[in-house]
Amino acid sequence: MKVLFLDLDSVSPRHLGCYGYERDTSPNIDQIAERGVQFNNYYTSDAPCAPSRTALMSGQFGLRNGLVNHGGTAGDMRHQGESRNLFSDLSVGGSLPSFLQLGARLNTALISPFPQRHGTYNFYAGFNEIFNTGGFGMESAEQVTPVAKDWLDKNGKDDDWFLYINYWDAHTPYRAPESFGNPFENTELPSWANEETLEKHQQAVGPHSVHELEIDHNNMTYTNEMSDKFPRSPGEIKTMADLRKMIDGYDTGIRYVDEHVGMLVDHLEQLGVLEDTVIIISADHGENMGQLGIYGEHATADDGTCRIPMIIKWPGMQEGIVDEGLHYHLDLPLTLAEMFDLPASPNWDGRSFADSLKTGADTGRDYLVISQCAHVAQRSVRFGDWLYMKTYHDGYHLFDDEMLFNLKDDPREENNVAEAHREVCMEGAYYLNQWRDTTMIRAGLDVDPLWTVMKEGGPFHAKGFLKNYGQRLVETGREEQFEKLKAKHPQEFPEERRDEKGEFTRKMMSSLFE
Questions:
Q1: What segment(s) does the record annotate as region Disordered (predicted)?
Q2: What are phi and psi of 163, to 5 degrees?
Q3: Are 170 and 9 in contact, with CB atoms under 8 Å apart?
Q4: Fewer beta carbons under 10 A from the terminal one: N or C of the chain?
Q5: What three-state secondary structure class fits 218?
Q6: At CA 109, angle to CA 108 and CA 113, rounded to 5?
């Protein structure tokens, strides 16, 4: 069996034609969808990049594998511990690549800089060949496709291989080559992108709100200053022209990747192996384009960030159907095990959706729990038409602790209806607790990595940023928002807490001698 896995970083299904997007971003991907199965409610269990890909490759929720952040203790997988043998679980079929390598006897190859970008070298486990394209995730497709074509020229006609390719052009900052132009220059914006929406989002605060679209890690603040190297990415959205630049930049990145997907499909056809090749198209996460007031980032546990595309063209299986069931991306390892008629690793948390590919059957789950601990600390539950969100650290966005959205009536998450539907929130909270308790008991855990992140000061992309960001808020006339953030995050101002505690202690001591 020949398997081509295309991991299109940050590509949201809402911006693909086959998922109903009104702009022509994905003609080549759409053609593949017509010949396969398209999954409409497919979510990463853990966002963003490193947690998502670690969950996929380990087949485990971040709660179990331990990697939920981009730094700190939870920026690495848990040690296997006492049960580790000469060969770790990851190297003997516990990871997806090693399972395909040893169980399915496939030649496994990776074309990606991702492990070095995030220091997640566990991602390499089970790959026979590794091609690091060398740009730390900042490369464009024209640097990736030649490597892929060369590999296919050497191996494509062989019977058994698995080739995993990362494309990055839809990841912020948007950087499709200027020579590609703007395919959407004369195309209408999506209907939601209007003056009313922009005015509402002008009231938002926090990283990747319309006022601060860039994170300055060197100076630990959020800013509107964008490098001249990335003319497609605005630093701030003040006007409708800025909003167009933002959306056009993202859509152009997707269209550029789509053209390279088309090149690979053409190359498979030239080699005479297209009809024999499984093609899987997915992503590590989506991209918020205004959802929750966030643009050009994948920073929350919401539908915009965590719903991802999944398209599978499998020779001899279902064609041209759409699956509406709820699925995790970590269901894929179990699915491939069933498709190859092989026993699955007992350590995997997924559920096979192979029958969706074979017969079009409904293999969806009753609910999903999705997590984000790198930009915010949130867990959400997707069930029915509802998305229930519990926020533990808001990443300086002033989110409500509980949020509830009806995705059927409000797919862009504009209206939090938690107060009006307390009974639905209680149902969501029940599912969340049930999932957490069941998963921790099954894994024999006593520490939830979400609380490790909180104990160590918060998510990596927020920890320590508020003091400098607060100065910017004051300087730009948003002192009221800064005061609200200070009240929510007093741990970011330890000197003030020490002064307050010292004053309290002095008053108590003085009362003893009055």
A1: 484-514
A2: -115, 120
A3: yes
A4: C
A5: coil
A6: 140
* pLDDT given at position 227: 84
- Write down the pLDDT at residue 39: 98
Sign of CA dihedral 272, 7, 34, 258: negative
> Using an 8 Å Cβ cutoff, are 467 and 86 in contact?
no
Tokens of 424: 């639905």
Element (H, E) at 262: helix 240-271
Q: Which long-range contacts (CB under 8 A, 24 or more apart) does 494-498 make?
A: none
- pLDDT tens, position by position, 274-331: 999 999 999 999 999 999 999 999 999 999 999 999 999 999 999 999 999 999 999 9
Contact 195, 187 (CB under 8 A): no
pLDDT for residue 495 = 76
Helices (H), strands (E): how many in the chain? 16, 17
Residue 70 and residue 50 in contact, taking contact as beta carbons nearer than 8 Å = yes
Is there a contact between 201 and 412 (Cβ–Cβ < 8 Å)? no
Cβ(460)–Cβ(75) below 8 Å = yes
**Do the Cβ atoms of 297 and 67 come closer than 8 Å?**
no
* H or E segment to which residue 155 belongs: helix 141-155
CA 405 from centre of chain: 19
- Cα separation, 307 vs 327, in Å, equals 10
Q: How many CB atoms lie within 10 A of CB 481?
A: 19
pLDDT at 336 over 70: yes
**Quick one: DSSP state of residue 437?**
H
Instruction: Give the Cα separation of 329 and 89 in Å (integer).
Output: 20
Which residues are registered as beta bridge partners of 164?
Answer: 5, 110
Q: What is the pLDDT of residues 405-456, one digit of tens each?
A: 999 999 999 999 999 999 999 999 999 999 999 999 999 999 999 999 999 9
Cβ-Cβ contacts under 8 Å for 495 (sequence gap 6 or more)? none
Phi-psi category of residue 504: left, alpha or beta, with phi > 0 → left and psi -120 to 50 → alpha: alpha
